[in-house]
Design a protein that fits this description.
2 domains, two-stranded parallel ribbon, elongated, mainly alpha
Length: about 170
């Protein structure tokens, strides 16, 4: 478990007396202080956030925003937390394409962070047919050459990934 950050700032919000009482009751039921309970609701643990982001990949016909959010989140995730947060395979069923995208993204992020990739990504077989990040035939040679190794190994040919944007 990572070391807790020093709390060096304060946040104040205005609520009604009834709202404050309701929040206190819920915090007490959870066995938490008021601040702990509010923070747990506003900032879920990273393992939970990882599962939520993966679920968004499966829940949309065009998950472009979900992918961008996952990439930004992984890029900001400290290396010391990466292995712990991604160790368990999310329960969300993904298509072969999105399972490979996720695995390649995590493998690439691990390499960038000098961390071990999640072991479960090795269980995902690479795509049978190549998939390109663009439909333009004129870009295929570039994508074949530019794809990061974690993506190329999975038959995914893209120009950027974690920490980059097209």
């Amino acid at each position: 478990m990572g070391r807790a950050a020093t709390k060096d700032s304060q946040l104040q919000i205005r609520v009604t007396l009834a709202q404050k009482r309701a929040i206190r009751r819920q915090a007490a039921r959870a066995g938490m202080s008021l601040s702990e309970w509010l923070l747990s609701r506003a900032l879920p643990p990273p393992e939970q956030r990882f599962r939520e982001l993966v679920a968004e990949l499966a829940g949309d016909d065009d998950p472009g925003f979900a992918v961008a959010e996952l990439l930004d989140w992984l890029d900001a995730l400290p290396a010391r937390d990466f292995e712990r947060v991604t160790a368990e395979r999310p329960d969300t069923p993904l298509s072969d394409y999105w399972a490979n995208q996720l695995a390649a993204t995590l493998e690439h992020a691990a390499a960038r962070k000098d961390a071990a990739p999640p072991a479960w990504t090795r269980e995902i077989p690479p795509l049978a047919e190549p998939a390109f990040g663009s439909e333009l035939a004129s870009l295929r040679l570039h994508l074949l050459l530019a794809a990061p190794p974690a993506f190329a190994t999975r038959n995914l040919f893209v120009d950027t990934s974690v920490g980059g944007r097209v």
